[in-house]
Amino acid sequence: MTACLGSMLNGFVLGYSSATLVDLNNTNPETGEHRLASDSAYSSLFGAFVPVGALVGGPVAGWMSDRFGRKIGIMVGGIPYTLGWLFISCANAVPSQGGFIALFELGRILTGFAAGWMSLCVPVYVSEISTAKLKGLFGACQQLFVTLGIFFVEILGTISSYRPDFKYYHVSLVALAIVLVFEALMLITKETPRWLMSHNKPDVAKDVLRFLRGPACNIDKELNGMVEALKKQPQLTFGQTLQEFRHRAVYFPVLLALGLAFFQQFSGINTAIFYATPIFSEAQVSNPTLVASFAVGAVQVVFTLVSVLLVDLTGRKVLLVIGSVVLSLSGVMIGVEFILGHFYCHSNSACRFSPLAIVGLIFYIMAFSIAWGAIPWLMMSELIPQRVRGISSGIVTAFNWSLAAIITGAFKPYSNAVRPWFAWWTFAVFMALSIPFVLLLLPETKGHSLEEIEELFERHHNTKEKEKLVESNYGYVLSSGHMVIVWSFKYENR
Question: 318 Cβ partners below 8 Å, 6+ apart?
């Protein structure tokens, strides 16, 4: 749970723009306080700089966590968080407007860098210390903490909207305090047994595993599984690691992780989080700041908790398919709201409240929270083999945040060009396309250890038979030359 506080900090970063943008736009320069004009380029960069920083942070974190350990990797990620929130907190003290903007946006880049860093390190750390049966639950918990961070910062943003003495820089000081507490708690956590085993520290790994599982638990089977898996994975240099991507057992699960990242971002969720208040405002909703705080905060927390409880009961694929269906329908609903707003509300000054906008966005966030919020990060850490986990996780994380940067920056121009309703329908189409991806390509990983999942890909992707349906104790694979489609698998411990 301590490591998941890093995910809570990520939520703070994601929700900060939506929570404080109104205060930043309305701050009065005559009182000596700087502001970001809502129509300025800097206001747009305020949201876009986070994913830009994050796409750099992920790959660096992958190398760091492989080289120095998962725990050290997480703790180092706290440094840019500390500096970033400190810069944002102190930016208002800079006399010139230009200096304020430079320091403020630098703080946003650094917090984005740290968010990308943590979004890689935390899921890997959690997956490597969890048991096979509870891996889904604990993996989804890190997304729950992201939503708690968003909800918390939205509450603080609402307070700043009603209290003139509580400003955006006070909100960043709260974040800075959480970072310092997080770093102190990480000092007493343990390194992951799998990383210790892979770096020739079997005795320490055994002690840590016994501490994590409890003195009454028999850890021999789990420990032997790690040993056997590592026998097949000798220590590799950077060049040798890159050569591993020639093997289908390596590149195919990485491609699956990239596919999950693609559909996660093209659900359009970051557009809703970054610009929740403006979206409600454009939809003619009364008191958009308060409504956004509820929709993006409370709903995400509640339904991410539902995901935590269900992911190891129903499996990953069932939740992803249900989430895709609801997201697609909700995207259509939000698009219809914008059509109604364009052709009716704009000609009627009394039109100030739209139930359809609230229902659409609430269902949208519900579906994302249950499925596409936690599960892609969880499965990324499950699917990628141990021997390439650092570099591959860095690639997937960078890809994820690159898409976030592109979508966040391009949504408004695209929306203006094709009309808002068509922009939201675009997200709906992508969510519909994610359904065959999940059903036809993605294996179910519920209840299986990381070593079992890796062995699945080794067995299936080394087959040389063409156009043949092979049935084994591990499941079913349709192999056609170089392309292997994994339908499902059943792993039996023998």
Answer: none
